[in-house]
Amino acid sequence: MSVEVSQCKVEEALEIVVGKWKPVILLHLLHEGTKRFSELKRSMPGITQKMLTKQLRELEDEDIIQRVIYPQVPPKVEYSMTDYGRTLAPILESMHEWGEKHVLHKQKMVFSSEQDENVQ
Amino acid sequence: MSVEVSQCKVEEALEIVVGKWKPVILLHLLHEGTKRFSELKRSMPGITQKMLTKQLRELEDEDIIQRVIYPQVPPKVEYSMTDYGRTLAPILESMHEWGEKHVLHKQKMVFSSEQDENVQ
DNA sequence: CCGTATCCAATTAGATACTG
DNA sequence: CAGTATCTAATTGGATACGG
Q1: What's the pTM?
Q2: Is residue A101 in a domain?
Q3: Which of A12, A23, A99, B49 could pair with B9 as two cysteines, CB 3.0-4.6 Å apart?
């Protein structure tokens, strides 16, 4: 019983996890628990407020993370994984692991192509 | 020993697998073995020749798939997974599985929000 | 502090035509 | 058959300013 590729659902999973910043956000929340907006922003140098907000909204809409607003001045908003979102953890960890190996693999590829050049 | 998020390598893995069509291409090659260009194109209605070529080149550059050119007229080019590429299989299958569940989860989310509306 | 709105630059993707 | 080239449309992302 092989998987029907025509009804490919890999993309469903991918859309959750992709975007330049989503995996980083998710790993932060998975490993460090609840974080507030400004903490997340600080831990991701280079991200703009607009992008962080957008990525967080998308993750919230998909029920991966939850947002808790404290009605106070100045405002305080905390983000954390939902139980459902935590079901993504194994995939994220596998990808992290594979990604680390892939960095090494790319180095080997570059190295052997340099060798080839020397042979010519 | 927790994972250092600052050196996040999930993105390394993601870059391989993302792009509107890459997961579909990879699942085709994983499940059906060697395929030629025109077969892949036929099995992905909606993809343009330009996009298919581009995605295939990127996967080839990363050593995930290999291209074999038969020097004949008309031309014949066959694509298949590399041994290295096949190490992605578990991740792709996990994502496929999670994706299927997520489709159901989204349906439940829509259903319960419809219930909410009726309660008002 | 935590956003939204707007404008603009850059990247990405489709349609189409052409080639060995 | 398996591409490349070109032009254009659409999407994405950054910078900046402003608001509750």
Answers
A1: 0.88
A2: yes
A3: A99
Q: Which domain does A28 fall in, by range?
A: 10-119
- Please give the protein residue whose CA is closest to the C1' of the nucleotide C14: B48
Q: How is chain A split among helix, strand and coil, in percent rounded to 5?
A: 65, 10, 25
Query: Is residue A5 a part of any domain in this protein?
Result: no
Q: Residue A68: its pLDDT value, please?
A: 98
Query: Which of A102, A103, A107, A110 is the best substitution to test chain B (most B C-beta atoms within 10 A)?
Result: A102
The pLDDT assigned to B1 comes to: 40
Are B80 and B35 in contact, with CB atoms under 8 Å apart?
yes
- Answer whether residue A114 shows pLDDT above 90: no
Residue A56 CB lies within 7 Å of the nucleic strand C: yes
Residues of B whose CB is below 8 A from A32: 5
Q: How far apart are CA B104 and CA A24, in angstroms?
A: 26
How many structural domains is chain B composed of?
A: 1
Q: Read off the CATH number of the domain in which A109 is found.
A: 1.10.10.10
| Contacts across the A-B interface (CB distance below 8 Å) | 128
